[in-house]
Structures are given as C-alpha cells and as structure tokens.
Amino acid sequence: MKILAIGASNNSNSINRTLAVYAAGLVEGAEVEVLDIQGYEMPLYSDEREQRFGQPLQARNFFKKIGGADALVISFAEHNGSYTAAWKNLFDWTSRIDIKVFQGKPTVYLATSPGPGGARSVLAAAEGSAPFFGADLVGSLSIPGFHSVFDNEQGRLHDEITAKRLRLLMAKLEERLQEENWSRHKAKSGD
Q1: Coil, strand, or helix at residue 32?
Q2: Can you tell me the distance from the alpha carbon of 178 to that of 182, in angstroms, rounded to the nearest whole number?
Q3: Residue-wise over 11-48: b if at least 16 C-beta within 10 A, else e?
Q4: How does DSSP classify residue 30?
C-alpha cells in the first residue's frame, strides 16, 4: 500500500512535513512517498488565468499523485489562523480539475506548530471541508509545541501521550486500508 505524506507548507524545514512523514511511517508495510509542495509552485490562481492558460502541469501532476496513492497523510501548517498561501494556491488550482481533490482516499489530517495552538484553527477548517473535497477522513490530530514533543535526532515523538494518540490514529488508517484491500480482493475473486 502506498501512502502519500504531505506537509502543507513550502518551508524547506517544515515541521508539518516531518510530522506527516513520521506518521505515515507508523503504518506497517506501507510504502511512503513524500510530496514536497515546493515542487508545485504556480502563479496565483484566478479564473482569468485559468481561462487564458488552462490548468498548470503542476496541478495536474498533483492530482495524479493523489490518484496513485492508497491513502493520504496531510499535516497542515497554519499562517495567521489559516492555510499557508502555498497550500491554498496549489489546492485552488487542483480543485478546478476536480472538486473531489482527494478522490475518496482514506485520509489522516494532522497539524502542528511550535507554539501552544497546535495549528488547531487550520485543522478545524480542513476537517469541516473534508467531505466536500472528497477526503475519506479517518481522523485528525493537533500537536502543539512540536519541538518539545518531537526528538529530531531520533526522528520520533518522545512524549508518550502524544505518541500513543498518533499511533492509535495511524492504526485506524491501517485498519481502513486493510478493509479496502480485502473488499478489492473479494470483488476480484467474485465472492
């Protein structure tokens, strides 16, 4: 099974990308592909640009990457209580290809920040719109104070309560993927 891990930030040292990759790696046997949204920069979306130039290749490639995954782990950075401009622009362009950007994929939403808020505002916005944009939301988790709970040298959460909550969430995703795999297997065998 292939999990696409996305940090919804164009910061090259994104703690949200670190969190998404770490979380996806908790799913046993999963092939984790890390998607860096820096590779998907485009002009700011406007309907005039869309009419004039059509859909940028980057938006089509992003949509295709999502389609090729079995599941998604997205960790949202928060800028001024909302999505980062880089994520919002990529998402806006991609939603013009298909409003169901996430294509029914089992999805885990995460958010973290260095401070005590844990990017809860942006996570709440993402959760509220998940069904509209085609995310099969398995669950979500906000992690405040990332630098105090994540050990960069060891590459893992050292706060046991936070680590347990994340493991339980990722176990739900793994269970959903196993259910879907079983359903596909039954359909192929004609049971």
Answers
A1: strand
A2: 6
A3: eeebbbbbbbbbbbbbbeebebeebebeebebeebeee
A4: P
Q: Given pLDDT bands bounded at 50, 70 and 90, which one contains residue 124?
A: very high
Q: Is 111 helix (H, G, I), strand (E, B) or coil?
A: strand
Give φ, ψ of 183 to 5 degrees.
-65, -40
**Cα gap 136→130, rounded to integer Å:** 7
Helices 15-24, 160-189: inter-axial angle, 10-degree rounding: 50
Chain position carrying tokens 């509209």: 132
Q: Using the structure block, give the residue that is written with the tokens 């005590």.
A: 116
How many Cβ atoms are within 10 Å of 172's Cβ, its own excluded? 14
- What per-residue confidence (pLDDT) applies to 153? 93
- At 13-65, the pLDDT tens digits run 999 999 999 999 999 999 999 999 999 999 999 999 999 999 999 999 999 99
Across the range 111-124, mean pLDDT stands at: 97
**What is d(CA 108, CA 87) in angstroms, rounded to the nearest whole number?**
17
Q: What are the structural domains, with CATH classification, of the chain? A: 2-189 (3.40.50.360)
Decide: 16 and 77 in contact? Cβ < 8 Å: yes
Model pTM greater than 0.85? Answer: yes
- Give the rounded distance of the alpha carbon of 146 from its chain centre: 17
